[in-house]
Design a protein that fits this description.
Elements lengths: L13 E6 L6 H12 L1 H5 L3 E7 L3 H11 L4 E4 L4 H5 L3 E2 L2 E2 L2 E2 L2 E2 L2 E5 L5 E6 L6 H10 L4
Parallel strand pairs: 1-2, 2-3
Antiparallel strand pairs: 1-8, 4-7, 5-6, 8-9
């Protein structure tokens, strides 16, 4: 229930910023649980994990509590951050425009530089894959 800026991590922490479609869906739940399960491994590499979806803070809190999540979840209710990172899509489905978020992950180093951008990721095993990328970051 507070505003978070990635600038607060600059010079201090690496950041894994991942975007997902919706709290409580099977793939998004699996992904959030796997990131939470690996959280101490990320922390060992001075890295925080932050998940973003268009769900509100109340929905995030329920999702977190129901699944024992420890990663930070941020609400982007208007899709502003999703648009800035290029993960917001409006494909045409059956003749109608539909808004959605492409499951994506960004690895940002301590200097604030995006070192890896992964789009259309598969939830299962993704956290371990991203952890390997974080391990490869140099100071």
């Amino acid at each position: 229930m507070e505003t978070v800026s990635l600038a607060k991590f600059k010079g201090r922490k690496n950041v894994v910023l991942y975007f997902y479609a919706k709290d409580g869906t099977p793939g998004c739940t699996l992904q959030a649980i796997e990131f939470s399960d690996h959280e101490e491994h990320f922390a060992a590499h001075d890295c925080v994990v932050v998940g973003v979806s268009c769900d509100d803070c109340i929905t995030h809190a329920e999702f977190r509590d129901e699944n024992g999540l420890s990663v930070t979840l941020l609400a982007d209710a208007e899709g502003e951050v999703c648009r800035k990172y290029g993960v917001w899509r409006e494909p045409e489905v059956n003749g109608q425009r539909r808004s959605c978020v492409v499951r994506s992950t960004f690895v940002i180093d301590k200097k604030g530089v995006v070192r890896h951008a992964l789009y259309g990721v598969t939830p299962r095993g993704h956290a371990a894959e991203v952890l390997e990328l974080v391990r490869g970051l140099k100071e």
